Amino acid sequence: MYAIQTMRSRQFVVSVSVRLSSFPVHTPILSAASFELEVPEVYEGIVSIRSVAREPGVRSKIAVSSSDERLDPVGACVGPKGSRVRTVVSELRGERVDVVPWFDDPARCVASALFSRTRFSRDNRC
Known about the structure:
The chain has 126 residues and is an alpha+beta fold.
């Protein structure tokens, strides 16, 4: 996959060199790649996307962690006034995106995913 950036917008061109039948339809590659292109901390490896769950066209839940204790991984993905995640939402055509913190404890991780406060969609105003 690679991105083409023009002066007005960013477009994705998906190039798959493996058999498409080996991937399920709900594969979260597009959600993770969108965040990698939009969030410099993810691209540099400071913030890691640990898990992605996706219902295509409906919602995505993305669990993130940071290798730097001083950096809030959710805040880095959301961006100032929601600008970064809003761009990802528009690239996913209005799909709801929840960015939640990753915990090594499965119970805390599930609880944060179920009760996320950072939910964005195309019609959210920040």
